[in-house]
Amino acid sequence: MTTITIEEAKQLDQKDTLANYRNEFYIKEGQIYLDGNSLGLLSKRAEQALLGSLQDWKEHGIDGWTEGKQPWYTFSETLGEMTAPLLGAESDEVIVTGSTTINLHQLVATFYQPTGKRTKILADELAFPSDIYALQSQLKLKGYDPDEHLIRVQSRDGRTLEEDDIIAQMTDEIAMIVLPSVLYRSGQLLDLARLTEEAHKRGIVIGFDLAHSIGAIAHSFNEYEPDFAFWCNYKYLNSGPGGVGGLYVNKRHFGTVPGIAGWFSSNKQKQFDMEHTLTHADTAGAFQIGTPHVLSLAPLKGSLEMFQEVGIHSIREKSLQLTAFLIKLIEQELVDHGFTIANPRENHRRGGHVSLEHEDAASICKALKDKGVIPDYRSPNVIRLAPIALYSSYEEVWKSVQILKDIMDNGLYQQYENTRNIIA
């Protein structure tokens, strides 16, 4: 195999049509940031959007809800319209609201309607824990035992899921399916179109957690029409820590009464009539609950402006190239150091990050951070590395692998305890 050199990395950067967007972000000097799949970096446009909402508050006070440069009353709808192209969805099918888990609670409370023998929810054993907690909670609220009514598809290898195994569990006892688009540990991208088609053939409602795909992968919801989806915006969409989440509801469900109703579920023309009978919105806006968190919404607007300019397909193309480049370098430099690449290699099955398994993963992550490379650790043995299309360079990827090689060649990781920090 031909050795990949730093000169090749620099040549790829010179040809990169998205390279200029790196200047849009605040990147710490001397640091290589590969944790954008957990928290994206701050962009200058996100900062300016936040300052803009602060200025609206400063100038208009209460009238900022309707008179500001970006009126707050319709801010969630505005951002939903800007997000919709990333999903291949209609603008009124998307709303920016809540958080990942709150939105999942809302969607399950709305669409989980057990009848007869259809009482079970299908998920998977590799799901992010928060999704499982929410599903268990919703089952209890409906009077069902989660141990019996939450079915989790098993993984054959502890890393990935087989669509055939998921489909085999779509029995006539399943009322709802909730799955990740991209598995958070291994970075596997599921075939959402196939899974949606098979669920609908059997009369099962299906939805997806897009936390590890939105902003990195182009979705085509208008083609295969899942029932719902939900996500956070602070990873690949760079909205900031704890930024407001988002949800999608397919238009065929418009008119459905939200399972958890609140002030902002209202039709906006009726909301201030102050009636005690809810007239809910006839769009995805019906699935909002409370007043939008304006200062957490604002940075997303600046970030989404860049996605509008670049287009999600261009972002996905560069993301695939960066992760493929990273995988090749790992195979070139680290073959004798006990690493296993957990990702599927095929482009259509790989998300936006690379997952490395190693028995000393926690201590290796600590050593990387001390050397200026910011990775992400996931228990019990996974190092996640996410080069981001808008601000990572090929040269950074090359240097990161060389630093990791030095750490392994010289046993530098052995200076650290192989245990996670409080936040991993």
Provide mean pLDDT, rounded: 96
What Rg do the Cα atoms give?
22 Å
Could you name the CATH homologous superfamily of the largest domain? Answer: Type I PLP-dependent aspartate aminotransferase-like (Major domain)
What composes the largest sheet?
7 strands, mixed
- The end-to-end distance, rounded to whole angstroms, is 35 Å
Instruction: Show unreliable segments.
Output: none
Class by SSE composition: alpha/beta
CATH topology of the largest domain: Aspartate Aminotransferase, domain 2
The strands making up the biggest β-sheet line up spatially as 2-8-7-6-5-3-4
Helix proportion range: 25-40%
Under CATH at level 1, the class of the largest domain stands as: Alpha Beta
The DSSP helix count reads: 14
Order of helices and strands: HEHHHEHEHHEHEHEHEEHHEEHEEEH
Overall geometry: globular
Topology:
Layout: H1 6-15, E1 32-33, H2 44-60, H3 64-67, H4 75-87, E2 94-96, H5 100-111, E3 120-124, H6 129-141, H7 146-149, E4 150-153, H8 163-168, E5 174-180, H9 192-201, E6 205-209, H10 221-224, E7 228-231, E8 246-249, H11 294-310, H12 312-333, E9 340-341, E10 354-357, H13 361-370, E11 373-374, E12 376-378, E13 382-385, H14 394-409
Parallel strand pairs: 1-11, 3-4, 3-5, 5-6, 6-7
Antiparallel strand pairs: 2-8, 7-8, 9-10, 10-13, 12-13
